[in-house]
Specification:
171 residues, mainly beta, 6-stranded antiparallel β-sheet, 4-stranded antiparallel β-sheet, 15 strands, 47% strand
Amino acid sequence: MKKVFLLAVLAIVSGIMYAGTRTEMRVLKGDVAAYCVDVSEIDSIVFVDIHFPEHITSMFLVGDATPGGWNIGQASPMNMDANDSEHFTWTGTLVAGELKFLTTNQDWFPCFVRDADDSTKIRYREVDQDYPDYKWEIAEEGKYTVDVNIRDYTISITRHAPEVIDPIYKL
């Protein structure tokens, strides 16, 4: 009788890697081993993805901290990295307020929100019940660069140093 190992991956968006040898299989998410299984006596492994969203091809900033406010039709588009389709960046002026990320400027879902415990982590929401709608807070107006990596579920929001303009004196 053949032995088959069935691995069900639940609610994981991206960043999954299956790695191993003939005797051990690991399912990695980020740099954390989610499962480690001895597969030395298993004839085959079947991976079943129960909840895996479509590939994200666009990302938008929305919120009262952004130029378009909470109007999703005016959401600020982010730029996809030409060498990494899971990395998005945006540079521009933000004001004091909140923001989150949409995958389209035509609907509120799917979206990415702030992790409850770590503001450098993002959470995927496909529907309202998926995860609380935590947002990032921008404390003061300025020029910012926003980097989102959906493979690693990470975000950085970096405020640029204000430009200093030397006064021009006339005699």
